[in-house]
Amino acid sequence: MSVAERPVATTLSKDEILRYSRHLIMPEVGMEGQLKLKNASVLLVGTGGLGAPLAMYLAAAGIGRIGLVDFDIVDHSNLQRQIIHGTKDVGRKKLDSAADTMLDINPFIQIDKYDVALNSENALEILKPYDIIIDGTDNFPTRYLVNDACVLLGKPNVYGSIFRFEGQATVFAYEGGPCYRCLYPEPPPPGLVPSCAEGGVLGILPGLIGVVQATEAVKLILGTGETLNGRLMLYDALNMKFRELRLRRNPECPICGDNPTIKELIDYYEFCGVPHEPAAPVFVEGDLTPVQVKQRIDSGEKFNLIDVREPHEYQIAKIPTAKLIPLGELPKRLSELNPDEEFVMHCKSGMRSAKAVDLMKANGYKKVRNMTGGILAWSDTVDPSVPKY
Amino acid sequence: MAKILIPTPLRQYTDQKDQVEASGSTVGEVMTGLTTQHPDLRKHLYNDEGKLRSFVNVYLNDEDIRYLSKDKTAVADGDTLTIVPSIAGGSSVRG
User: Fold this and answer.
1) What CATH number does residue B63 fall under?
2) Which residues of A83-97 are buried (b: 16+ CB within 10 A; e: fewer)?
3) What is the DSSP string of A282-319?
4) What is d(CA A160, CA A170) in angstroms, rounded to the nearest whole number?
5) How many domains does chain B have?
């Protein structure tokens, strides 16, 4: 495993020998293994929850060349889990913050920064120079993109995924083994499976799953041990249970099967049924801005403000006059709402409340409107004392 | 009786239970038992034609039922079914 443009290292410096001494004295690594790590290249897609521990441990382990793909900015809400970034880094590019931490841990490595969103046009070119690809992304389009690019390029894809207290990890597209599409031929329709931003995640969880991914990458490079190829590791942090399921290559898989139908990268946003741009609050005719809602409250207009978020969100921040009816309970609780009255629906950012508006209109409610931008926009434009989350 | 392990994203449809017991001699029967106890689960597991959705996998013990006899796979007393839906979480605040 080597990278064309880098000379192959055949020795370690005195400083490197001291640094890697706990590896060097292990027969499974030794000088030969440490040189394999030094000559290896790994691409990390995402430097967030999974990418943070991955990048730190891969840097510490002495992987010679590490590529990072991320275009995001460090935000306060990242710091609960993305331990590669600190409070001082809020507002900086994650790439810069991550690279600083990694070079502080280990100045003997090369870091390549890709300040882009991975897409069908750039993926093959970005992935090509690397021996191993590690998928630490947070969305289905990028996961299918990384999978397909790895299969097409013949590169192993070290996979990890997390949700709340639960994680999955495996190695895809390695030595004729299964790929992500063998496990899940298609993504769920948008909105059916909540993202971490909607569903939350235990901050420590990506640490464990990311470290499993880092371990697998190191084993692939060293060529030692038994990898997760063909096995899906499931981890339940709440009950502290590890389980393992068998994965098989699907002979009918559209990309790695016996008669593949996908021979080049496709439009993954279309495939996953999601818009190319992150969904911004869209102003639909009849919608109200938080400022307009506030004016209506202040002028004493009679209407019902309904908050369709979950009770635990309501505890974090609320608009005092709002009545809480979580979206999931709305169909059962319509009897509480008089169809002759006027309603304004709100949630965190305006997406769930838009669904609530559609649901109520479908049930015969005529005077129902959405508050655009949700409580986040309320905090920005009406009452900054309302915390954002 | 077979035990069915419910993954986190679907626990909102099982009154937050992480495992449910149901009886049946095949995977299909046990799953019907499950969705009878928790009807809200059905549309998250099956499409309108009654087929298991392509982002949900069901395992009998450690084997994917797609490589056994799918819904007709025999289930013995004490077997464990695991529902494994795709989850995408990893990094970033987007999504």
Assistant:
1) 3.10.20.30
2) bbbeeebeeebbbbb
3) P--TT-B-HHHHHHHHHTT---EEEE-S-HHHHHH---
4) 7
5) 1
- Give SS3 for A326: coil
A299-318, pLDDT tens digit by residue? 999 999 999 999 999 999 99
Residue A13 distance to chain B (closest CA, Å): 35
* Shortest Cα–Cα distance, B46 to chain A (Å): 12
Q: Are B83 and B7 in contact (CB under 8 A)?
A: yes
Please state which CATH number belongs to domain A290-381: 3.40.250.10
Binary contact (A195, B88; C-beta < 8 A): yes
Q: Is residue B94 part of a domain?
A: no
Residue A6 DSSP class = S
Is there a contact between A321 and A344 (Cβ–Cβ < 8 Å)? no
Residue B93 lies in a domain: no
| pLDDT tens digits, A247-287 | 999 999 999 999 999 999 999 998 988 776 554 555 667 89
User: How many C-beta atoms surround the C-beta of residue A27 within 10 A?
Assistant: 7
The tokens for A301 are: 């207009």
State which residue of chain A sits closest to B55, comparing Cα positions.
A184
pLDDT in tens, A49-103: 999 999 999 999 999 999 999 999 999 999 999 999 999 999 999 999 999 999 9
pTM reported for the whole predicted model: 0.84
